[in-house]
């Protein structure tokens, strides 16, 4: 029984969650701008407090008015009245002005909050490692945060900044009533209790509904993005998928509307009985106030003031409660952010490790074994390799053989499960991660196609040298994309996406050349890595690009994964990877003599060309 009456006190967990959420959001806001934070909170408090003088002025006006009814000297009565009315109007104006400044400051704060969270997420993600990021449970939770970070800030900041105003409003109004009788205040708190009980249950139910809907919500988001993104247009159009997808969206949204409606209807039904205590209380106190007027215990003005205070207590109480509910609804989101921001990379990134500025001899794989997770199969099985400065190495092998995995260990996106990768005799795990990455220029199979200018697209290869336009032009020329760039209306300033004015959409082959140019612009890198990025380029162009790369990489290590044997055969060393092992290695001629896997793969492709 007691448990039923006092649930808000017993649900300590919920209180703790609300407290946690407020603390986290406040912390972020404070970090963005302490002055803005103080401003919004102070404005909110002042706004809440201003009801006190307004109520009091109204009381004075009414009393003066009643006292002057039928007076013979109206001039004597009207002056003080006019003064009071003026003061009342002034107070109201101040309140309005504060209200609008406050709502502007809140908007600024909530935008800043959203932006800050987005930047925070991006910055934090950059500190994590591939192992952490590719974990499916991580992905699930992270995607949820990412999806929501656009719209949660608004409700969080609004509710947070409303709290001081509600509390001050509540204290001022309750303070007025306390003059009259503490019992009135105690009763006011008691009659709002049933409302809280019902609402608290429904906040919880709404929250459960949210989680129940979350997967469908995600599907809805995917459907919407398929329909809305222009790059998907052609395929959807050919398949006539739009109508089908729209129907799926409609079905899901109808389910949502129905479920929300049901919950709301139930809530309103359960709420009905909670209005009665309030009705009796409000009616009762009202009659009591009237009684006090009649028996001349209080003036008519005071009657009005107490009544206003009474209403204001109820209003502030429920707005306070709404703020807390809203904050509670955002708890999981805030908790997810907290989790994410406190993640530690599983891989040791060795900020204090040796900062290697260049490669002297090369890289060695020493009996490297690797699996993606404890419970998965071995992907690399005892790899021994030497990649020496000045060498051009080709990697061939069937799909799924482990070529890309090998590259990911070389570039240290993963560490070996057993064995070691060494740079000039030093285990790469002991080196500073960032500096190790500076040694590489890599073009992955799914390399990026930045929509910004040509300068950005190529310059991103070495952000410290982005101002070196001549260098960018040289790289473009080497990658054989300079003529295309010169033909663009804005040349090197031209954006590479049609969504921009004068923007263009490069073809697959052109994108690859931009990718190669970006790589060539990264001149400080000692190790050039290409993981099958050239498959879209026509053979003649590939020949040209490859020549350039061979020339460029004379003093470097060039390692490339390719299925094109016309380029593979020109490497100094060819590695044949099969089921996680390097089964053959040597020059083209040596491998052809072996008459093994390489020869078979080579002949297979040669046949395809005739
Ligand atoms: N992130 C990953 N998690 C688990 N398994 C993976 C992951 N990436 C690749 N694999 C698996 O490792 C094997 C080798 O893949 P990969 O190195 O990409 O082959 P290749 O580049 O030679 O085609 C494949 O069986 C693939 O399914
Ligand atoms: Mg691959």
Automatic annotation (TrEMBL):
<dbReference type="InterPro" id="IPR036640">
    <property type="entry name" value="ABC1_TM_sf"/>
</dbReference>
<keyword id="KW-0547">Nucleotide-binding</keyword>
<dbReference type="GO" id="GO:0015421">
    <property type="term" value="F:ABC-type oligopeptide transporter activity"/>
</dbReference>
<keyword id="KW-0812">Transmembrane</keyword>
<dbReference type="Pfam" id="PF00005">
    <property type="entry name" value="ABC_tran"/>
</dbReference>
<feature type="transmembrane region" description="Helical">
    <location>
        <begin position="177"/>
        <end position="198"/>
    </location>
</feature>
<dbReference type="InterPro" id="IPR039421">
    <property type="entry name" value="Type_1_exporter"/>
</dbReference>
<feature type="transmembrane region" description="Helical">
    <location>
        <begin position="272"/>
        <end position="294"/>
    </location>
</feature>
<keyword id="KW-0067">ATP-binding</keyword>
<dbReference type="GO" id="GO:0016887">
    <property type="term" value="F:ATP hydrolysis activity"/>
</dbReference>
<keyword id="KW-1133">Transmembrane helix</keyword>
<dbReference type="InterPro" id="IPR003593">
    <property type="entry name" value="AAA+_ATPase"/>
</dbReference>
<protein>
    <recommendedName>
        <fullName>ABC transporter domain-containing protein</fullName>
    </recommendedName>
</protein>
<feature type="transmembrane region" description="Helical">
    <location>
        <begin position="153"/>
        <end position="171"/>
    </location>
</feature>
<dbReference type="InterPro" id="IPR003439">
    <property type="entry name" value="ABC_transporter-like_ATP-bd"/>
</dbReference>
<feature type="transmembrane region" description="Helical">
    <location>
        <begin position="36"/>
        <end position="57"/>
    </location>
</feature>
<keyword id="KW-0472">Membrane</keyword>
<dbReference type="InterPro" id="IPR027417">
    <property type="entry name" value="P-loop_NTPase"/>
</dbReference>
<feature type="domain" description="ABC transporter">
    <location>
        <begin position="363"/>
        <end position="604"/>
    </location>
</feature>
<dbReference type="GO" id="GO:0005886">
    <property type="term" value="C:plasma membrane"/>
</dbReference>
<dbReference type="GO" id="GO:0005524">
    <property type="term" value="F:ATP binding"/>
</dbReference>
